[in-house]
Amino acid sequence: MKKILFPTDFSETANNALVYALRMAENQNATLFVLHAYEMPVISATANPVMVQDVYKSIELSNFENFKDQVPQIRDIAKQHNLDHVPMHFILEEGFLNTILKKRVKEEEIDLVVMGTNGNSGLDKKILGSNTANAIGSLGIPVLSIPHDAIFDGINSIAFTTLFSSQDKTTLETIVQMAKGFNATVKCIHVATAKDKADPAVINSWKENFKNDNVKFYIVESSDVEKAVFDFLDEENIDLLVSVKRNRGFFEKLFTSSMTKKLSYHNYVPVLAFHEE
């Protein structure tokens, strides 16, 4: 991962996520692209064209001045965490965030997007905020979601939910390389249900394949996949959850609001979502 994109609205949540974005960029020897998107207001079609133009110019100037003022603060945050050596590229652009994200990911050949999220106030009462949910669903590259209450204190333990598919194996190889930079252990968890149990031969081949890496495998039998994963996060003191965004089912279930009433892990554990090829 050589290019990481970090959208920000300069909020406390975003500034908190910035530390993770900088750490990830440091880990990967990557450049961090800091993006601030803003939207123009809708003005009545009957308004005077000259007035409309003046309003838009004023808004653009205001956003530019705000962005200019915020850049030193972002650099200060990096300096406070001894991360001011991480190369940063700043982008200010007008338009809808998700549209701009898609465009920038393609134009800049971005490898990873890091976003802060405000808890379960987002789209369809999901834990992830609507912008983060949209990004995970549409960008086609990994998206790292940082909850508001997450505090970076190193990444020592990474959980990876797996079905032992070929795509998961490719993803695990990427995770292992990332984990080495943090000197972290990767803990692969497979929840075996009555309908979905991995082939022991496949599991053994994975163990053989990653025997020289800091990877552990856990097979948990349960009829409740989501709860089994949540319990695992708490029991193993997980610092980062990695999951593959599959076409249906698991990932969406993992983030339904009903589970948040039972477990509180989502308040502080970042989630890295990969796309299934």
From TrEMBL:
Against SUPFAM superfamilies, the record matches this protein to:
Adenine nucleotide alpha hydrolases-like
Pfam families, from UniProt?
Usp
Residue ranges crossing the lipid bilayer per the database entry: none
InterPro entries, per database record: Rossmann-like_a/b/a_fold (IPR014729), Universal_stress_UspA (IPR006015), UspA (IPR006016)
Matches recorded under Gene3D superfamilies: HUPs
* Positions of the UspA domain: 1-145
Q: Which PANTHER family match?
A: STRESS RESPONSE PROTEIN NHAX, UNIVERSAL STRESS PROTEIN UP12
- What family does the entry list? Belongs to the universal stress protein A family.
- Any idea what this protein is called? UspA domain-containing protein
Per the UniProt entry, what species is this protein from, by scientific name? Myroides odoratimimus CCUG 10230
